[in-house]
Amino acid sequence: PTPSECLFFFAAHSTMPATRKPVVGGNWKCNPDSMKKLDDLIANINACDTSKCDVYVCPSPLHVAYCSGKFTNGALVTPQNCNFKGCGAFTGEMAVEQMKDMGITQVLIGHSERRGEFGIFPMDNNDTLAIKLKYILDAGMSCVFCIGEPKEIREKGLDAVLAEMDVQLSQIYSLLDPEKVVIAYEPVWAIGTGLTATPDDAQATHAGIRKLISEKASAKVAEAIRIQYGGSANAKNAPDLSAQPDIDGFLVGGASLKPEFADIVKAISGAKDA
Q1: d(CA 183, CA 168)
Q2: 206 a catalytic residue
Q3: Residue from 147, 130, 146 nearest 138 by CA
Q4: Active-site residue, selected from the candidate residues 63, 111, 206, 260
Q5: pLDDT of res. 4
Q6: Is 186 in the active site?
Q7: pLDDT for position 42
Q8: Which pLDDT score is estimated for 15?
Q9: Which of 63, 113, 149, 186 is catalytic?
Q10: Measured distance CA(256)–CA(192) in Å, rounded
Q11: Residues of the chain with pLDDT under 50
């Protein structure tokens, strides 16, 4: 059997106990267009039952301050980026020192839209993201670290995808503290397109990422670290994806702006509690 076939077998027959608490994030990206709409979005998040699932929300930078302190169920305000220099002459940037002063404890970095996908100028790469992750952890904060492959790599097969994941993770294996870092795997070709990896494909990729972490960090880290799926997740596909043993949650884009976000949280809470 090929390495890909072995990983599919490993993924399909994983018997590892599901001890990882699921985690679902809502990335509002550059939305909404009016602050008047924020209260309804906040209400959607507050409607989530977070007793068996961690929840975080990534408002646009202009809305972070308004959203801080508005979540009543423990959902964490998680800015969409930070710099790695702190406060100072860094126009257009956000520093973790500013976040901590606002009571914010977590930040997201590495989203494909900031890595240069979809025609946007690259604002980050593997080198800057490794520096940022160390800066975030040294500041005592936690981090959601995004990785993912474009369509041209996915079309080459699972081995090519995992080789790219290894490249994106190579500088941070030593920083992967499961208590402080969540990995968000986002197949770039599935973001905002309505396309979604099949549950089997997503599971095989997550299992492969976990295997890389086991080999290059440690088996203990690999077993404990949470890996989210982030490719057009919604209420309809969440139950089947949630049933996969190595999918620990979702990073939700468009659906996080809708009431169905609570259904996504409910789906994975139920699947992992079964």
Answers
A1: 11
A2: no
A3: 130
A4: 111
A5: 54
A6: yes
A7: 98
A8: 41
A9: 186
A10: 12
A11: 9-18
